[in-house]
Give the backbone structure.
Amino acid sequence: MSQTLFDKIWHSHTVREEKPQAPAIVYIDLHLIHEVSSPQAFEKLDSLNLKVHRPDRCLATLDHAVPTLPTDASGQLNYVSREAEKQVEALRHNCRKFDITLHDWDSPQRGIVHVIGPELGATQPGLTVVCGDSHTSTHGAFGALAFGIGTTEVAHVLATQCLLQRKPRSMRIEVNGALNPYTSAKDVSLYIIGQIGVDGATGHVIEYCGSTIRSMDMESRMTLCNMSIECGAKAGMIAPDETTFKYLKGRPLVPEGEAWTTKLASWKQLYSDPDAHFDSSISINANRIKPTISWGTNPGMVIPVGANIPHDDSSGSLYKALNYMGLTAGKPLHGQIVDVVFIGSCTNARITDLRAAANLMRNKKVAVGTRVMIVPGSETIKKQAEDEGLDRVFIEAGAQWRNPGCSMCVAMNGDIAAPGEFVVSTSNRNFEGRQGPGARTLLASPLTAAICAITGVVTDPSAYMEGTHV
C-alpha cells in the first residue's frame, strides 16, 4: 500500500494502537530538553519515584532564559531574574541526577535547542523528535517527524520514551519554480501562512515538496519547517535527499564507516510514494512570492514589503490588529520608522542567515535611532561567524553582537523592546507583547531586517537592492 513519508515514520514508531482512528502509543527516538519546560516534568518524576527511562535518548541545552550579554566585570552572568537563574540551575541538577547530556555554559556547542540538534547530527531522517517547545517542527527539515509537546508530555517521555498520540491528517504543500531575487525561505513561509491562514493546517502534518524546496539548502529548509506551527500544523517535513545527507555526513552524532552506509541506505527509502494519498494538497508558484513582512499581530497578517496594508476584513481581527500596531489600513508599511532590529532565533540565526545580513551591512552604518541586535543560534555558529569576520562587520556597522540564546524572540531573558517600539524581527511570532509588553513586531527575513537596520525604516529589499529606494 502506498504511503506518505509521514505514514512511513508513524507506522514504524507505533508501539500499540487499539483500533484505527484511536490514539496510538508512539515511540520517541530523540527528546530535546531546555530549562523552561522541563522543571515541572522532572518534579513529576520525583513525586512518583520514577527514573528517566532512556537518558541516552535525551539531549539538553540552555537557551530560553539565558542572558545573551557577556558576563559582567566580576564574571557573573546577567540573568534577568532569580526565577530565570533557578530554571537553569534546575536543569543542570536534573541532568546530573539522571545522567542526561547537557550542553552547559562551558560547552562549545551550547545554543538554541533547534539549532544544536541538527548541528550535532542528533537530528536524523526517519526519527521521531519531541521537545517542550512548539518550534520543534524545525527538525522535520531532515525527514524526521518532529513536534512540540507540553510539560506533562515531557514527563511522559522522560518516564517511558513514548507518547499517546492521535494520528494527524496529512497535507502536501508543493512549491515550484525559481524564487524571485532577494526572496528567501522566510518569505516563502510567511507567504504560505498568509495564503492559508494561521489555522489553515490545523490537525495536519505538512510535507513540503516541489522544485523550489529541493533547491533550498538545509538552513532554508529548517526555516520553512520551523514556521509550520504558525499555520496550525502539528509538524512540517521535507523528504531527505543528497542535500540532507551531505549536511549530516561527519557530524559528531552521525555514524561513520559501515554504519553510515547502512543508515544512508535506509534514509534513501524515506519519501512519499508517487501515488500516496494526502488529505489535502496546495500548489504554489514560487514566482508569485516577493520579499514579505508581517504587519499585524499574527504570522498570517503579511504583505509584500512594498505593498499597502489590507483594508478588507471579514473576521473583525484586522482593525483590532491595526489598533495595537498603530497602523492604517490601505497605507503602505514602507517607510515606517523602525526602532529595533533583531536578527536571531531558532528561525533565522544560522550561519547563512548571518552571512546574508553581514553582506548587506558591510561598510555601512546602522541608522541613527535604530538599535540592532545580532544573536547567533549557537556557540558553533558564533565561532564560525567570528572566524569569517562577520562579527566585525556587525560591530563596525553599529550593531550589538551577542552570545547565543533565544534572546528577543521570547523576551524572557532581558532582551526586550519598549512599549510602542517597532521591531523588525527574524523570529517566528508577532503576537501582542511577544517581544515585550506593548512592543510591535514585524516579521521578516534576515536580508529585509538588515536593510531596515541600515535605512531605519521599513524598506522593500527589491527597491533597495536595485537602487530605486527613496
Observations:
- The first strand starts at residue 14 and ends at 17.
- The chain has three domains: 5-167+243-263, 169-241+271-288, 294-465.
- The radius of gyration is 22 Å.
- The CA atoms of residues 223 and 347 lie 5 Å apart.
